[in-house]
Specification:
Blueprint (H helix, E strand, L loop, with lengths): L7 H20 L9 H19 L2 H29 L8 H8 L25 H22 L1 H15 L4 H21 L1 H6 L3 H19 L4 H21 L1 H4 L6 H30 L8 H19 L1 H6 L20 H6 L33
């Protein structure tokens, strides 16, 4: 029987990664990218997606993932379109960009809005993450089948695509890298990654961390391809460190206050990601006191992001077919209740990811052969 409780540790890792994203955009400190938040977020998303596929058929999983992303996103987009209209910028949006804005997965050149090169770009510059997430969700079942049945072939294709696109299309290489992080999440869901790392995580971290940091810091502005390799190694460093330290850190998440914070980020992660750019735009364009300075930007994010969560965060609850709340773990102020038949049909929370344990077995799904890990690591 599949357990229905969710992994608090994965939610905590995602909260940390999300805070890093907001801090980077609020401060502009490039060195913060040494903590590679995006690879970690795609790894977590891939893990949870694989867990969902364990419980339900692929089509409902993809459909529900799209609903959970697109409803909050379209709410945000409606607010931004209203803002762009007030600023008189709607005429700058091309028909192709309108298609990409409404359905990001159809955009071939990234999700883009008006005001490129100006402060207005803060209202749409981060939408590519949602585009990549939607694309990987659509491809997710096929990637899962390939990862289970032909892992060596899948990883050969991924590595080859990364190597071939690096000299000519760095943006595509980044997309391939994030896709690889998603597939690594599949191995974590199976337990095969944990079984491989249990005796190797310290060596992996001590090797990848210093080398990746040296390449990234030393060559980020002189040799971007080498710096990109550094980012990959830093991603491996943080991932191995996070999984290796899980048995020591996870018990600390059982406290009431800590679990409440983690739960809040879990229920409002998309709201924070979507609206932090708009908050930074308001801070700079208003202008609010201290706007444009690092302390001012960070302080206003701390003040205004909770306000945004109060105002529109409940849309995430509606998208997930939960009873809407103004604030998770508070009284249900909004009297908007999901009908019983919808609530019964709604997807439950994902079960926990496997812990790093030498005895963590590779889980078998309802179909396909036993999962396997990348051959190069065996």
């Amino acid at each position: 029987m599949v357990r229905r409780d969710r992994s608090a540790y994965l939610d905590a890792l995602r909260a940390v990664a999300l805070v890093r994203v907001v801090l980077f955009h609020a401060t502009g400190w490039w060195w913060l990218t040494a903590f590679t938040a995006m690879p970690l977020m795609f790894f977590i998303a891939g893990t949870l997606f694989a867990r969902s596929l364990e419980r339900r058929p692929a089509l409902p999983v993809v459909r529900d993932r799209y609903r959970r992303i697109l409803l909050p996103y379209w709410t945000y987009l409606a607010a931004m379109v209203a803002l762009w209209g007030v600023l008189g910028l709607l005429g700058e949006i091309t028909p192709a960009q309108w298609v990409g804005l409404l359905l990001p997965v159809l955009s071939t050149d990234g999700v883009a809005g008006p005001g490129a090169g100006t402060v207005v770009h803060l209202t749409w510059f981060a939408l590519w993450y949602l585009q990549m997430h939607l694309l990987l969700s659509a491809l997710g079942p096929a990637l899962r089948r390939a990862q289970r049945s032909h892992p060596a072939v899948l990883w050969t294709v991924i590595v080859a695509l990364g190597a071939l696109t690096a000299p000519v299309a760095p943006a595509l290489t980044i997309a391939v890298f994030y896709g690889a992080c998603w597939v690594v999440g599949y191995h974590h869901a199976d337990g095969s990654l944990d079984a491989w790392l249990v005796r190797r995580w310290r060596t992996t971290a001590l090797t990848c961390g210093p080398v990746g940091l040296a390449l990234f810091v030393g060559l980020h502005d002189r040799l971007p391809p080498a710096a990109a390799v550094g980012v990959v190694l830093l991603g491996a460093f943080w991932l191995s460190l996070a999984l290796g330290l899980q048995p020591r850190i996870e018990p600390a998440l059982a406290g009431h206050r800590t679990s409440a914070v983690v739960r809040w980020f879990s229920r409002r992660s998309l709201t924070v990601y979507l609206w932090h750019g708009a908050v930074l735009y308001a801070v700079v364009a208003a202008p609010l006191p201290g706007g444009g300075t690092v302390p001012g930007n960070v302080l206003w994010c701390l003040v205004l992001l909770p306000v945004a969560a109060l105002a529109v965060g409940w849309v995430e609850d509606v998208a997930a077919r939960r009873r809407p709340q103004l604030w998770p773990h508070t009284m249900h102020v909004l009297d908007l209740r999901v009908p019983a038949q919808q609530r019964d049909a709604a997807p439950g929370p994902d079960p926990p990811a496997g812990r790093l344990s030498p005895r963590a077995p590779a889980r078998r799904g309802s179909q396909g052969p036993p999962p396997g890990g990348p051959r190069g690591g065996r």
